[in-house]
């Protein structure tokens, strides 16, 4: 048995085009749309020889593979490594990298902590923080929106919501980026991420212990489930860790991308100002249009078939969510940003049993922030070029120079 | 093709043809039934696909799924014994003619 990137090196299935591309090259990661279009053009699947994997990017097949948790499992890793054959770089996530019945148990506890009811209680805090930050930015001639807004807002509200006593803004943002880079191949991005693990991981682990959390945050809800015997106390610490790996860098990315969309589409921002109730649909379209999580993988756990293609057990399939969200077979004029599109069925939060458990909090953060911006800002003006930051799983901005024109 | 009948709070009935294997939520969305929002797309995170199953069908559609009970606590309207998240009800030929009532609001 031959392994590549710690997974089974499969041969190209019959009828599947062999496509010599590196989906994890920095040029693709910085500007993925041409790669997505070419991927969809290949067919339902393409075989990528350099990693001996399948890739899919048409809406229907991406959704089928990504949501069928019995045939395409997560417990073998949602990156290129197959945990059955190689050792994961960190203990696997008890939710993201787990299958039922283990997943069902941990998911229930996480869903409780992140339910619409719990999130409704956070909105007031979100609003106060959003107003303070936006007011400050309105005083400035210009600002760097990634650091000054996209990072500043979640770092102000999220650790507090979790109940963290220790806040280290850089570690919180970089931990997520590190975990996401870890899902890729052994490239420069992954190696640089792994090199930072000894610095960041011990801090994260310590910050997730019960004595470093307040008794009234989301973290406490997880530890209460441990007290009740639903999960172990060691598991509770790991689930709190999941808040931090999946909940900071993702929303940072979502906010940066939302500002990027609105700065480039002034008519959309005008529509939002005229009707701030568009804040929620606006974020859905930002998610579809920019897909903060661009690619996650699954592993075939049996011999099976999708769209007539025979897939053998052990096949790694990378699912380009960003491509599915741009598939013209699914969306009218996918490359047009329409603030009121209401793109039900987009895959930016995934789909099925692993569908983002933090989506309520992400939506609440963005809805509140976009509403405050719509109320206070007359125009969002770019003052320099937007630069993207390549990451093996996240499509995020590195820099976004902007100016807010006051009302 | 199992049929589903959606009944609005004012009593208006809409009958649609579903597909066995699809959820009641997906059937509602496919037919633009106003009153099922389903913001999370069926990941059981939003409780905006809440519905009341008509008494006669309650026994046949089976139990609430693991975690559904708790997520229902986030529903905008009153939760009754017949309350379900429609994304957790899978259509089959046994459910042909299923009648579900829509709540006053989902958010
Ligand atoms: C814009 C923001 C976000 C995006 C785009 C996003 C995207 C995603 C996606 C695509 C998945 C599916 C993964 C899979 O199926 O393999 C997922 C799962 C997950 N997300 Fe998010 N997410 C966001 C925000 C958050 C937040 C704020 C939290 C925490 C509070 C969070 C926690 C999680 C967790 C724990 C999972 C794993 C769920 C499971 O496997 O059952 N996410 N997210
Ligand atoms: S669609 Fe969100 S809970 Fe059913």
Helix content of chain B: 10-25%
CATH superfamily of chain A: Cytochrome P450
Shape of chain A: globular
What's the level 1 CATH class of chain B? Alpha Beta
Q: Strand fraction band of chain B? A: 15-25%
The gyration radius over C-alpha positions of chain B equals 12 Å
CATH architecture of chain B: Roll
Which strands sit side by side, in order, in the main sheet of chain A? Answer: 3-4-10-7-5
User: Structural class per helix/strand content of chain A?
Assistant: alpha+beta
- Biggest sheet of chain B: strands, sense, closure? 5 strands, mixed
In total, how many beta strands of chain A?
14
What's the CATH topology label of chain B?
A: Ubiquitin-like (UB roll)
Instruction: Give the SSE order of chain A as H and E letters.
Output: EEHHEEHEHHHEHHHHHHHHEEEEHHEEEE
Write up this protein.
Chain A is of the alpha+beta class and 407 residues long. Chain A has a single domain (3-406), classed as Cytochrome P450 (Cytochrome p450, Orthogonal Bundle), CATH 1.10.630. Helix content of chain A is 47%, strand content 13%. In chain A, the strands form five sheets. Chain A has a five-stranded mixed β-sheet with strand order 3-4-10-7-5. In chain A, a hairpin with a 2-residue loop joins strand 1 (3-4) and strand 2. In chain A, helix 4 packs across helix 10 (218-227) and helix 12 crosses helix 14 (279-290). Chain A is globular. Chain B has 107 residues and is of the alpha+beta class. Chain B has a single domain (3-101), classed as Ubiquitin-like (UB roll), CATH 3.10.20.30. Helix content of chain B is 18%, strand content 20%. Chain B has three helices and five strands. In chain B, strands 2-1-5-3-4 form a five-stranded mixed β-sheet. Classes of the chains: A alpha+beta (407), B alpha+beta (107). At the A-B interface, helix 4 and helix 16 of A face loops of B. Bound molecules: protoporphyrin IX containing FE (HEM) and FE2/S2 (inorganic) cluster. The site of protoporphyrin IX containing FE (HEM) has 26 residues of chain A, from helix 4, helix 11, helix 12 and helix 16.
